[in-house]
Write a structure and sequence with these properties.
- By secondary structure, this protein is an alpha/beta fold.
- It is 30% helix and 26% strand.
- The chain contains seven helices and eleven strands.
- Strands 1, 2, 3, 4, 5, 6, 7, 8, 9, 10 and 11 form an eleven-stranded mixed beta sheet that branches.
- The chain is globular.
C-alpha cells in the first residue's frame, strides 16, 4: 500500500474561543479505516474522538497522517507529541505514556456462511484458510500459532473478495473495519458472510504520548478526563454513532 504523507491542519478553534497560550500538540497516526482516514468526516472515528477530547482539554492540535513505522518512531523520538490510535504493549512503555482506553477493538473472524466453521479456540481453525493482512498484529496467540493456514494480502478488501469467491474460508480483522469495507465495497454480499460469535481478541485503543514531551503524563490524564466528560454529556456517543450508524448490519452466527 502506498501512503501519502499528508499534513492536516486541525486548528478548529475560532478566535472567540481559542486559548492563545494553549500548548499545540503534533498528533500523528497511520491510515486505518474507519478510525483514521483523511477522506472520512472529521478524519474518521478515532481522529474525531481524539481531536475533540484534546480540544476539550484546552490543547490545540496539528495532525499528520504517516505510515505506521514513521508515526510510531516519530512519536517515540519527539517529532510528534501524540500517536492517536495505538494498542498498549510493555515494550512501548519506554517510549510512550498511555491514556486509558477510549475505544475497544474486537478482532473477529468473518466466515463464509454455511461452511460449518466453529471457533472456541485457535486449534479449531486448523485446516481452514484464514485471510490476514501483511504485518498486522492481531493478537500474539493468533499471530504465533503454528498450525494455522494464513493467506496474506496487503489489504483487508483483497481478503474479503477472496472470501466472497470461496478462495479462503474466513477473514480475521477489526470488526468495524470489516463492516466499513463490506458497506463500501460489497453491500450486496451481506448474505454471503457471518461473524463467528467469539472474538479472537479484544484490544483497548488508546493515545500514546511521547515521553520526550515533558508534560506527557498530564496530557494523557487531561485526555482521560475529557473523554470522561464527553461520555457524561453525550458527545462521545454522538461521535461514535456518526461514524458507525451507516455501517452494514451483519448478524453473528447462531
Amino acid at each position: 500500500m502506498k501512503f501519502v504523507r499528508l499534513t492536516l491542519v486541525l486548528l478548529l478553534l475560532t478566535g472567540t474561543t481559542a486559548n492563545a497560550t494553549a500548548e499545540v500538540l503534533n498528533v500523528t497516526g497511520s491510515l486505518w479505516t474507519p478510525y483514521l482516514d483523511q477522506d472520512l468526516p472529521n478524519g474518521g472515528l478515532a481522529a474525531d474522538l481524539v481531536r475533540t477530547a484534546l480540544l476539550e482539554a484546552d490543547y490545540q492540535v496539528e495532525a499528520t497522517v504517516e505510515t505506521w513505522p514513521r508515526a510510531y518512531r516519530g512519536t517515540a523520538v519527539g517529532v510528534y507529541d501524540v500517536v492517536a490510535a495505538i494498542w498498549h504493549s510493555a515494550d512501548r512503555d519506554q517510549d510512550l505514556v498511555f491514556s486509558d482506553a477510549y475505544l475497544l477493538n474486537d478482532i473477529v473472524l468473518l466466515a463464509r456462511r454455511g461452511i460449518g466453521l466453529e471457533f472456541e479456540n485457535l486449534d479449531d481453525l486448523t485446516g481452514y484458510r484464514i485471510g490476514v493482512v501483511d504485518e498486522y498484529a492481531y493478537d500474539e496467540a493468533f499471530d504465533t500459532h503454528a498450525n494455522l493456514t494464513r493467506v496474506t494480502n496487503n489489504h483487508l478488501v483483497q481478503n474479503l473478495l477472496l472470501l466472497q469467491r470461496g478462495e479462503i474460508d474466513a477473514v480475521v480483522g477489526d470488526k468495524w473495519s470489516i463492516l466499513f469495507e463490506i458497506s463500501r465495497v460489497m453491500p450486496d454480499a451481506l448474505g454471503d458472510f457471518e461473524f463467528l460469535p467469539k472474538p479472537i481478541a479484544r484490544r483497548a485503543l488508546r493515545i500514546g504520548v511521547s515521553r520526550q514531551n515533558n508534560n506527557a503524563a498530564e496530557i494523557a490524564s487531561a485526555f482521560d478526563r475529557a473523554i470522561s466528560a464527553m461520555r457524561e454529556d453525550g458527545r462521545y456517543d454522538t461521535i461514535v454513532a456518526r461514524h458507525t450508524q451507516g455501517l452494514a448490519l451483519l448478524p453473528a452466527k447462531r
